[in-house]
Batch of 2 targets.
Target 1
Amino acid sequence: MAHHTIVLLPGDGIGPEVTHAAQGVINAAVEHTGGSIKWIEVPAGATAVEQGHDNVLPAITTDAIARHKVALKGPVTTPIGKGFTSVNVQLRKKLNLYAAIRPVRNLPGVKTRFENVDLVIVRENTEGLYSGLELEVAPGVVTSMKVATLVACERIAKYAFEYCRQRGRKKVSVFHKANIMKLTDGLFINTARRIRDASYPEIEYEEIIIDAGCMKLVTDPTKFDVLLMENLYGDLISDLCAGLVGGLGVVPGSNIGTDVSVFEAVHGSAPDIAGKGIANPLACIMSGVMMLNHIGERPAAKVIRSAYDRVLSEGKTLTRDLGGTASTSDFAKAIIAAFGPAGV
Ligand code: NAD
């Protein structure tokens, strides 16, 4: 019987609603398949300050993740145009969570414009325009520095190609704007091409200027397999791709480092629906499935995945974003009720 310790960051807005719903589903599945999880709940975001911490990302939180290596995280609210550095940016830099992996696929019963979408976004998570290096050079003139380093470009490219090889994926498409940002995006694509040519010749490879890439994505996303890109592009393209398969309620993610991994949905804290009990917990539950596979709890991951496929296909218990009226907890309970035998 395997026992695991997982750090839980409920976060802000809908974060506590969706993470606690996911926690219930994960606990039920792990018990169902003969394991157990001990959770260590720690604060992040506005919630941390409300709880009396002097920082939105207290040391207690980063220490717990560094010690236990795996975390499930809810979204956090970040003030716009003022205030503290984003918790997410701080967390990814402090724990060196250099690769964001976001699988985007059609789900049974979720009708969208396209069928057979099955792509994975690999986003560099530590630099680019997220360096936070902004400067007022003169009154009315401000700059923001885009950073690209060879180390980070090599690390993320190797991750993307290795991911393809291990999972039988066939093609990497690099989105870039190296026609304009010749040094930074130039380093990104030149590094990706060099690594692919030297070590991964069996993987099909293409470079696409990002504006044309957006048009191609919304015209026919089935042409894409693995998308590799720098930080800001990965952020934008993730939400665009979520829109192709049913919205932010259905796209999970992980932030992977050399030593530590933090699993979280692509969506934010959704202040417009927070506290109403109507958020879709599926993206967080799916992130939990990625986490269970990561820690070797594959039977539990499979039980949850089959169960949510069944609930979505039946279409009786769906949250509002998917056209239903079910609450966050109704949907989570329906998934648990749909568990099949362990190992099926
Ligand atoms: P958002 O993703 O929170 O919401 C965008 C839209 O999608 C909203 O209409 C929202 O109601 C809907 N939505 C999102 N998740 C949903 C779910 N699970 N179920 C149903 N509907 C859902 O984006 P935003 O409004 O631009 O950002 C809100 C806050 O979240 C900001 O402070 C932003 O900085 C933060 N944010 C945090 C993260 C993170 O912590 N990982 C990611 C993105 C945004």
Target 2
Amino acid sequence: MSSTWHILGAGSLGSLWACRLARAGKAVRLILRDDERVAAYEAAGGLTLIEQDQAHTHAIPAQTATGAGPIHRLLVACKAYDAHKAVAPLLPRLAPNAELILLQNGLGSQDEVAALVPHARCIFASSTEGAFRQADWQVVFAGHGFNWLGDPARPSTPGWLDELEDAGIPHQWTPDILTRLWRKLALNCAINPLTVLHECRNGGLSEHHCEVATLCVELAELLRRCGQPQAADGLAEEVERVIQATAANYSSMYQDVRQGRRTEIHYLLGHACRIAARHGCELPHLERLHRRLVEYLNAHGLPSD
Ligand code: NAP
């Protein structure tokens, strides 16, 4: 069954998905924060996707959560800390067999959303695509990547994967989505907080090799303790490879802090520390890193949850 793609949040990733689906002729509708955002969006005349210096504007219809009509398919494209709060007002509109696709980085927000919508299907995504907002309603497609999709509760593939194919959204369905999300979370925990604390590019971490290696040992132990041994395999080597391959880049957490934006710490390092505590697993270096990051964020006037 083909149905409308409702996209909650027209930020970087939400706009990237919305524009590609719309240009492939799929029915797309944006759900924005409030009437003021809808008015600002309509005044701009649509969403603009900038790809290889070419800009194309797509006049995708937009509404707020209180708009009319049932929602069968919802792409949740908010930050992890906003996801469940943004989904809550949509509950009366969700069809009984609704499917939600959750694009959030890290772990924990997916469960918060799933708890709100026990009758809907929640599909988790892990994306390595890169996009950023150049201005409101203008998104730059900055890095080609891939999207892994999966449902830890049900292995059957959804009926709309061919629509992603039509839209040129690179993807694969995987039964191991939790392993992928845990691996990405572990890579993030080993790199991003240290780039914030040492105020450096990813490559700067080659000067802190021992600190990174110690964190990798603890992260691998955590992954094994929480039933993700595959995510632990070769973690330290991959972390080193990522540091080398992205040496000139600033991590997403570093960029958030520099720009005074709230980070997703609660769903990344914070989640790792909470799960470790739940398993009675003592990880002193990871916990110390978390405390240092919280202190750093507080000292810079940023939320640490
Ligand atoms: P973003 O650019 O900040 O976009 C988030 C959007 O959510 C904003 O447009 C915001 O609206 C909207 N929003 C928040 N609360 C809302 C509500 N109640 N109703 C409607 N809209 C609401 O974030 P992003 O970079 O796309 O990231 C989204 C997720 O994808 C994050 O978990 C991130 O880690 C992950 N991710 C991002 C990338 C990337 O390259 N950007 C890559 C991989 C993964 P306003 O515009 O009104 O503030």
